[in-house]
Specification:
A hairpin with a 5-residue loop joins β1 (about 75-80) and β2 (about 85-90). About 75% of the residues lie in helices and about 0% in strands. The chain has one domain (about 1-495). The chain is mostly helical and about 500 residues long.
Amino acid sequence: MGFLLYYVLFISFGLWLAALLIISFSIYGSLEKVRLVKKTSLFFSFFQFILILFFWILSDNINILADFDIYNFQLHKQWLFLYNFHYIIGIDNISLLFLLLTFFLTPICILISWNSIKYRYVSFIICLIFITFILFNIFCVLDLVFFYIFFESILIPMFILIGVWGSRQRKIHAVYQLFFYTLLGSLLMLLGILVIYSHIQTTDIRILYNTNFSFYRQLILWASFFFAFCVKVPLFPFHIWLPEAHVEAPTVGSVILAGVLLKLGTYGLLRFVIPIFCDATYFFLPFVYTLCLLGIIYTCCSTIRQVDLKKVIAYASVSHMSFVILGLFTSNIQGIGGSVFLMLSHGIVSSGLFFCIGCVYDRYKTRILRYYSGLVSTMPIFSFCLFILILSNISFPGTSSFVGEFLILVGLFENNHFAALISTFSIILTAVYSIWLYNRIIFNKLANRYYSRFSDFSKKEFVVGFTFCFITVLFGLKGSYIISLIEAPLYVYLSFK
């Protein structure tokens, strides 16, 4: 089944790209070409999502075995015969959930871009294909070298996406910040990979899990990997690039960036850093807690003073991802399970919030908070969707974020009472700026002088908004099912401690 999934998805990517190239060179009318590209892209993206969803339903009983034959579905391919590098893919329940998130957001991005992308639409879809393909490999590959290659390759299409289809003149500055911040941070991980290869002559993570590094070597390797992943998350104080990138990116770029790309850092911490460098993880635990708590408090306070709608959600994302890292380092099943769940929830909720902000920006051509007021009288459906997503952002019971943050707090309370107290206080701050933001935009008196026209969600926007809200509520009510899926792999990771 694993071979079938991989090959069918790989072939679908190739067919998708070939179809776009054929359309581009065979149809000369620009309007007909764009219309056909939109329909073709939506079909292929939806087909990939249905395929991975079908595979998830069939493999409902996938468990990670205690004897470490953990990746039941593998494709082994040797690369560079003279060296011990291998292209190995493996899918467990954690990888499968992140693949679901990736392929869920792809057709959503196409629907969002249906009317918002005005030029070079074929190039935009090709860029989106490469982003999805790279993310697919990141969540499946089991070799450090190939993980690093795909981990860095994602910067190229994101650079193009923001640099070409960004909204303002500062997009070049923002995209260079994104590129160089994450690239320089990842160079430390490259040095760590070279040290690992020189030590054990392989980068297969199945072997690394069973390799005992010396304590001092663990400290060095842990620091190199941790800071590389923290820049990608991003964790305070490495978060400077994220608000700038979100502000200048198109709505689709913000959805991909907040929905999936921010999870690459936390996924790397969960997959590589915590199980491989166990002693160093325990040694640096006070440092990680301090950094995360400072980041949560600082970003919450910074969010309150923002005037740009996208910056509000961007700083909120930094706060939530700091919360995720706190849960990952609790070293218990509740905290790590809550972190994985919160990653999935944040991918849905933050993407939905950026979608809502993109909708009002397309209509009124501004994201400055002071120009918005009383939108409930002209956009009631938009107001309802934003209300559900705001409730999830503040971790209201019955929404997806509540399950993840509650489990993180339970796991954190077992390790550090003070950290749990500060984290709980940060939830209050999150509620303050989220409720204030919603009240400022939706209620009060309608500012007629700022709006040239009024329109609620279109049919496509309604489908996208309803989907985000439905998944948010569904995850909140059926969170136990997701937690049960990830328990088996998490027990294996905890067994290495």
